[in-house]
Amino acid sequence: MIPSLDPKETKTSLSKNSLPLQGWVQGLRGNNHVQFLQLRTNGEIFQVVCEKEKLGEEVFKQIKTLPQETSLEVAGTWQENPKAPGGEELLLSSFQIVGSSADYPITPKEHGPDFLHNHRHLWLRSKRQLAIQRVRSELSFAIREFFRNDGYTLIDTPILTGSIGESAGTLFSTEYFDLGQAYLAQTGQLYLETAAFAHSKVYCFGPTFRAEKSKTKRHLTEFWMLEAETAFLGQNGNLDLQERFVKSVLKTTIERTKDDLKTLDRDPEPLLNYLEKPFPRVDYGEAIQVLTNAGEAITWGEDINAEREQILTNHFGTAIFIQNFPRAIKAFYMKQNPNDPRTVLSADLIAPDGIGEIIGGSEREESYEKIVDRLKEEGLPPEDYSWYLDLRKYGSVPHSGFGMGLERVIAWVCGLPHIRECIPFPRMIYRLTP
């Protein structure tokens, strides 16, 4: 097996061995004898020590008045300093201004969320946002690494589609030349299933779209989703895979982003403690009973909302799978439960700490006749799914899959209160810019 590299270590070593350094002024502090310049380069912040005695009065005065976000080229020598970021700092010998900056709008003072999101293109330069986006990058890398090492093939599924995977009421639509309506994909699953019949183990990872008019802290209209499909795999094996996957990629990400989590004031220990426990597999009926005992007015057949999900994770003390949901509230492609025809072999993985559902998955129905019946029940024309139905005609096999929303997992890892910070440019029902 090819050993995996730590991308952060590689980036840091390249930065420190490449002089002159090129970057931006993140901040300045000091006195009339020495200034400590925070230089942002390659998404990291290094300390540059500027000594008046070494540089001279005029150069030192120019450094003291450098505006925030001025771009620079600096040269010098590295020296150890345990108090500096990364344990090293650059003792400046010379610098050159590359691009000026004046009246940078995001200052160290407090700004409201609307102001910051209106300036999102600049806010990405802040320490907090640098840390979040590095966590996102490392988590995305760990996801791809996991599936590559597990023998899965990456399949890029279309964003424009004529087929509906889930509720038609949450689709963005557009006219597609002379062919009628096209939709922005809610999921790559249907296409991924076709690839599973070719490669057995496949995954896709990319943007998906939901036209839900939701203003909650857990919803975006554009988000990234990891989806996996596996041939010859039943629902129990599917849950085993999901649990192993989540625990593996989260532990890897936490290990690689310790400094970033410290920047975010996120203590990873409570999260790591969750990951050391088995994730209980709670039947939907049992979950309803727990909620009823907790005083919730909920009956069998209802969906479980975010507040009730938190009651359940608090009750079990960790992340949980809720499985075997009522057939009536789940998608047409989910396999009917042979032990209870009212339900399907599905499961949602619910994260604690108010994060809620991070994975939805199921065993897929492999019967041609049952899929056709379910399409008709949902009011979906079977002829529009002829290519999908072919899977059930030519060598159908049991198979299962799941989808995981990236941003909710980032919120869990980073301990963030709102999902809008988890993606570089959030798209919500009230925001389309920048």
UniProtKB/TrEMBL annotation:
One MF term in GO for this entry?
nucleic acid binding
Q: What is its main location?
A: cytoplasm
Provide the reaction this enzyme catalyses. Answer: tRNA(Asn) + L-asparagine + ATP = L-asparaginyl-tRNA(Asn) + AMP + diphosphate + H(+)
Compartmental location: Cytoplasm
Principal EC category: ligase
Task: State the family it belongs to.
Answer: Belongs to the class-II aminoacyl-tRNA synthetase family.
NCBIfam families assigned = asnS, PRK03932.1
Name of the protein in its database record: Asparagine--tRNA ligase
The upper taxonomy is: Bacteria, Pseudomonadati, Spirochaetota, Spirochaetia, Leptospirales
